[in-house]
Amino acid sequence: MRAKLGIIAGGGDLPVKLLDACRRQGRPAFVIGLTGSAEPRPEDGVADAWASIGSVGKILGLLRDAGCTGVVMAGNVRRPDFATLRLDWKGIKVIPRIVAAARHGDDHLLRSLVTIFEEEGFKVVGADQILDDLLMPAGPLGRYDLPPALMPDLERGIIIVRALGAVDVGQGAVVAGGDAVAVEAAEGTDRMLARAAELRAGWTVRDGLLVKLPKPNQEKRVDLPTIGVATVEGAAAAGLAGIAVAAGATLVLDRDALVARADALGLFVVGIRR
Amino acid sequence: MRAKLGIIAGGGDLPVKLLDACRRQGRPAFVIGLTGSAEPRPEDGVADAWASIGSVGKILGLLRDAGCTGVVMAGNVRRPDFATLRLDWKGIKVIPRIVAAARHGDDHLLRSLVTIFEEEGFKVVGADQILDDLLMPAGPLGRYDLPPALMPDLERGIIIVRALGAVDVGQGAVVAGGDAVAVEAAEGTDRMLARAAELRAGWTVRDGLLVKLPKPNQEKRVDLPTIGVATVEGAAAAGLAGIAVAAGATLVLDRDALVARADALGLFVVGIRR
């Protein structure tokens, strides 16, 4: 019997996919849905328990009572409003550290959470350690490759995303014809792509690309850049020619569906080594 | 009789204000409205001629025929779609340089335009050289000052905007509680603030600030950061406590109205020296 895994579940499909993988691997798992972030959908019904993000004591207690030794944090979590967050006893104890870390950006915030779980004796693992086919490979994922004409936009995108990442802001940017159409902060990739679509309304030729890269010193267990079918559709709606992400450091959700959609829409999705 | 000034007018109020200032100063001026960027409003009726941004030959000819020696570029101009831009003979001649510059960002693009006007014998001046009360002073502009509790957000905002500026992306960011709520690219400050308002919906306490700074090597004659009444209202709608801009390197439009609105809404607007 393998060690039991606690899945702390935010929004999106990743937590369900992790649970499916655990079941396939015969690995026992316990899912704590985060109130307000994980959407309780009747067809899932995967959460064994629910907790708000401020009830740190409850979350630790649930994990211990369930016999979990490892923990994975997966899915989208909105940064809480610390001023109005309801805290339990353990939450009150750890919140000053979290708020202090949060002042320096999301990556510091997530690192402080990892440290808290580790101090409580849990092993924190990355989603890619459970779902081993989740990581982006190098090269094109589907039928189309990055055209040489877009190399300058790729280079400019890499420079921009690295600059953003170095100050712990975001992981993505849309570049077309050298223009930084949109750069990503708290709104996330999908909203950034929707904005790019508005700004580029009336595009006549697919041009430019979305570049998504991890931050230089990123805590890779909790917040790797992620792409899915919605990313491909958002990039297509913005008139982009494709998507470039870091090979070996990007989670690809629903790979088969993503490739099918990218091929159908004529978009490239490439993993770059940098 | 002072040298005649050509005003190449984009959108917004700045071109009209420049023309008013020229009239007050007894300085002859000739206004070329940029089709698609300057809005022809009946109450203005200020444009002596109209030209599209691709008809560079026409613009140069109009300036020469009008006897202009100096040129000021003022107001918002949307970056054109170079693929569909209609060019005249001179436009065709200079467009390769402009497109090559544009690949490196807006600042390079604007610099290439300045160089083209200078090569044609025009003196390019900044709007602040005409409207001398336009530049932001150091310190608070209205009744409220930056509270000490927001110094960490100001510091983080400065770091973020400098990083953006160094890669020629944008001039602004919204930071609250250490979180990079939104960073600005092609969408401009007003849309970035609208996004911050959406992301911060339900805010209960004014917190955080907008930081706007020129890019490190900015061509200061054509694209200084600008704030106006709409900036104050956008910041208020996003639940921000105020606005920090670079003293001596920011254009303040409608200063009296801006101060009145900021005071009424309880927002600080400060000029910082960095």
The main sheet of chain A orders its strands as 6-13-11-9-7-8
Q: Give me the Rg of chain A, rounded.
A: 19 Å
Order of helices and strands of chain A: EHEEHEHHEHEHEEHEEHEEHE
Which overall shape of chain A is indicated by the principal axes computed on the Cα atoms? globular
Count of separate DSSP helical elements of chain A: 9
Q: What's the mean pLDDT score of chain A? A: 88
What is the beta-strand fraction of chain A?
15-25%
How many β strands of chain A by DSSP?
Answer: 13
Poorly predicted tracts of residues of chain A: none
**Most residues in contact, chain pair and counts:** A-B, 42 and 42 residues
CATH architecture call of the largest domain in chain A: 3-Layer(aba) Sandwich
Number of domains of chain A: 2
Q: Percent range for helical residues of chain A?
A: 25-40%
Structural class of chain A: alpha/beta
Report the span from N to C terminus of chain A.
39 Å
- Which CATH class of the largest domain in chain A applies here? Alpha Beta
**Largest sheet: number of strands, sense, barrel closure of chain A:** 6 strands, mixed
Domain LpxI C-terminal (chains A, B): 138-270
Protein name (chains A, B): DUF1009 domain-containing protein
Domain LpxI N-terminal (chains A, B): 4-134
InterPro entries (chains A, B): LpxI, LpxI_C, LpxI_C_sf, LpxI_N
